[in-house]
Amino acid sequence: MSSTLQDLVNRAVFYSTEVQTHFGALIADAEWEVDFSSDPHLTFTSADGAVLRTRPHLLGSESDREKTWLWGWENVNDFPDAVVGLSHDVRKFGAAEEVTELTTAELSLDEELALRLTLAAKEATGKWAHYPAAAGAGTTVWLLVDAAEIALPAPQVKVSVRALMQGLTQTTVSDHRAAIESYVAKRGIPTADLPEGGLRMLFADGSADLSFDDQRRISNCDLNEPLEGEAAEQFAAAESTGTPTEAATASRTPDSVSAPAADETAAPSTTTPSPPTPAPEEEPSRTEALPVDESAAEATQAAEALADDAAAPAAEAADASPELKRPEDEQPRADEPVEPAEAKTPAEEEPAKEAKPKKKGLFSKLFGR
C-alpha cells in the first residue's frame, strides 16, 4: 500500500508538535555545537552550565541561495555513515511507500517543504525530535535528534489540546480526523465515540470532546477539567482493559534508540538541564477552540494563546542560531562554502529598533516556521 507525503504529514504532525514543544523547553536558553564525526553529537549548553548531549542524524539541508532541498543520503560532503545512515532509511521507506519526495535527491524548495519532509522522516523512522541548525551561507541543516531526556511524560489534556491547535498552524493537515487518530495511537490516549461523528479524548486529568465538519476538519473542541461523570467512567473502563498509555509512549520515544546512541546519552560528561518550572495550576475550565476556517493569523494567535505556558521558556531564547561549528573542509554543500554572517552596523540596527518587528524565537524556529 502506497502513501503520499501528505499522508505521512497527517500521521506525524500532532505527535511531533508535542515532542518539539517539550524539546524546546529543555534547550530554550542553550547554545549548541554539533560534531559530524564518526561519533556524532549535538550538544546544548545552558546559561547555568547544564549540558544536554544528544545524538544527531543528518536528514538533509535547505539552501535559501539555491532554493532547493538536498537529502542527506546524497552525501555530497562524504559524511560518515553514522551521520547520514538514518537518511538512507528514509529513502528506503520512501521507495517502499512510493513517496517520490523521499527518493528524489534534490527538490525545489517552498516555505513548508523542509518541515514536511522532516515530519515524513519522523513517521518513517520513529525519531520524533528535530533541530534545524543554521550552517551559514543561507543553508539550514535539518537534524533528527535522539536523547533520553526528550521522552514525553504521561499525557495531559491541556498539553494534548495545545499540540492539536499548534500543529494546525505549522503546516497543511488535510485530514484532521486521521491525524488525531494517529496521534492518540502513538500517545496511548484512550478515546470514546461521540454522537454525530465526534471523538472524546480521555486523560487522567480531564477530557477533550472534538467535533468535525463534513471535510473531517476539527470544528470545535471542548476541554473539560477535572475528569468526571461519563468521561471518568469511560477512562476507568479503558484503563481496566489495559490501554497501554505508558507502553505506547515508550515505544515512540528516544529510549528505543540503538545501543550506541543510548550509551552516548548516558555518558558521564552529560548532565540534564533542569526542567522548566511548572506553571501554576488553573481553575477547572471548559474552553472552546476557534473553528478551523478562521484566518491563518487568527488561528496562529489562538494556538499561541492556548500554548503560552509551554512556549514561554522557548520564546525567550536567542532569535538566531549560532553558526554551525565544524572543520573548514566540511561544508553543508560541496559547492557552497560556509560564510560568516555579516555583522550589522549600528546604523543598520537602529531602523530595526524603530520598526520593532516580531522576533522569531526558538519555539518558532524549532517548528521550522
What is the topological layout?
Blueprint: H1 5-26, E1 31-35, E2 41-45, E3 51-63, E4 68-71, H2 81-97, E5 106-108, H3 113-125, E6 129-136, E7 139-146, H4 157-170, H5 176-187, E8 191-194, E9 198-203, E10 206-212, E11 218-224, H6 229-240, H7 245-251, H8 259-265, E12 286-288, H9 296-306, H10 308-315, H11 346-355, H12 362-366
Antiparallel strand pairs: 1-2, 2-3, 3-4, 3-7, 4-5, 6-7, 8-9, 9-10, 10-11, 11-12
Keywords:
single chain; about 375 residues; alpha+beta; 2 domains; 7-stranded antiparallel β-sheet; about 35% helix
Category from helices, strands and their pairing: alpha+beta
Distance between the termini: 32 Å
Work out the helicity level: 25-40%
Main beta sheet: 7 strands, antiparallel
Can you write the helix and strand succession as a string? HEEEEHEHEEHHEEEEHHHEHHHH
Radius of gyration from CA coordinates = 21 Å
Assess the beta-strand content as a share of residues.
Answer: 15-25%
Shape, per Cα inertia axes = globular
The poorly predicted ranges are: 244-304, 306-365
Q: Give the overall pLDDT as a whole number.
A: 76
Instruction: Report the count of strand segments.
Output: 12
Q: What is the count of distinct domains?
A: 2
Specify the number of helices. 12
Biased composition (Low complexity): 258-272, 287-320
Region (Disordered): 234-369
Biased composition (Basic residues): 356-369
Biased composition (Polar residues): 240-256
